[in-house]
# Entry
Amino acid sequence: MDRNTIIAVILSVIVITAGMTIQAVLFPPEMPPAAASEEEMPSESTAPLPVQSGSEITAEGSVEDASPFEIAAGSYVIVFDPMGGDISSIRLSEHLDNGSPVELVFRDPDDADLFTLYAGGDRNAPIDDAFSHSIENREDFTIVAFSRDFVSADGNPFTIEKRYAIPLNGEYMIQLQVNISTPDGSPVPLNDGSIMYSVSVGPQIGPSFSSVSNSYDYRRVSVRYDGRSMKNAGFDDGVFVSDSDETVDWMALAGKYFAFIFISETDGIIASAYAEQSESSTEVPQKDVIYLNRTASGSSSVSDMYSFYAGPKVKSNLDIYDTRSSNAFNIEGHDLTDIIEGSWLSWLESILNWILQTFHKVIPNYGVAIILLTILIKLLLQPLTKKGMDSTAKMGALAPKINEIKERYPNDPEAQNAAMAKLYKEEGINPMGSCIPMLIQFPIFIALYGLLNTNFDLRGSMFIPGWIPDLSIPDTIFTLPFGIPLLGSQVHLLPILYTFSMIFSMKITQSGSQAGQQQSMIAFMTYGMPIIFFFIMYNAPSGLLLYWTTVNLISIGQQLFVNRRKKAAYAEEIAEHDAARKARKEAKRKSRRK
# Structure
């Protein structure tokens, strides 16, 4: 392997590793008929804001039945909890996790539910009293309404109503309307001076997990400000607070395949967005709770609308909310597809995904489709890789001369390299011949990494029963009774096959032409780099490792074929060049004698 090829391989490692770690950005909609209020709510006044401690409110009256209940509607199976009028469970009926509908609310028993309200923004005082409830099944929506009367510390009565609208057409969106009013026209007594209430989502999005310490699974909090792209939240001592100079459009809690996106549909009511992240020794090892803080108001009644996307990170499910007429809630303008974090080569990922889906339609097995996609890419890149393989075969044919140079200069690496450079020039070998094609292939490698690492369609897709039941997770052949540092207790076969195939591929593509210090670099590239990649890729999804292993196996087959077919021809060509050079030298000697 020549010096420039080694540089190209090192560059490929840098670029691929960067691609693996980067990874990638006017009018309120109307309330659907299902959740529309019977009366138009009066606009908020500019009366002085009453200051009331959020914890000092008392529920009035009593509720006969405060037992949790389950509603199956559209794409959801939702468990509502009258204690607070919240949601304690959201299961997706169309998506499975270990054979059961995916549970999107990952929580400990003592954790707050989704959409818990905190009076006055006091996050230590959730409004979790029992609410009365009603259920109404309409043509397009199921409506679940909760209501409870309260009284403030100074005796002012008010009512909180929470109305959930669940579409029956299969969309992954829930709308929540929070109505708060006083019976005598006095200001709502919940303000703490700047915040009327907070509403939370958390503590974590499912499916459940035991660790998110590797780059192939994660939980992130993101925020999108009006007119700007989404960005991931940075936590300072476990806390994130939105930019006070920006207007929050939505806040999200997302995993690799699913997302919660919490949107305020009522203009101007969000004072700030807030999030807390913490590590835990309980069943939920990492908790991320997000809050939208509703600005204080001097009005006697408020009616606030929130949209809540709870579903897969799939473009077709998200982009319907860019156009009012495409969704049941007439939502538009929030750019929810920002939550799908692709690489800077997302356009190339889309092309490769289209090809992958085409193969899957022909053979409905994504493992087979990945292999066919890999073969197609190798065929398309063959004109680029052929030159590099021919160069490797030709340098293999030069092995006798290279060994002769090494024997001639056994202790002089510089002289060896100079002699080899002269030999390459005489034989017409371009050391860059295998470097440039590798660089051209980098964008495809990065795009395929992004595609196969996060492709939702691979989730739960079986390749080989008993070995690779799910291409979106590592293949586990057995579990050890103890853990291995950096690897864990699960034994994965594909990373082992990938590593050995990478080592063999490196060995057959090196010419043995380097001398001196370059020999140690060759050894590192042949053995050290595959071992490093073994640890990097150990917990990678099976689909991604299947691609890389197939690439290695195809490359091995191609190089062996080229070596067998052309090495002898190149040896004959080199012999002819030697004979011609000898003839020219002999002719020069004869001409000088004359």
Q: What stands out?
A: The longest strand covers residues 86-97.
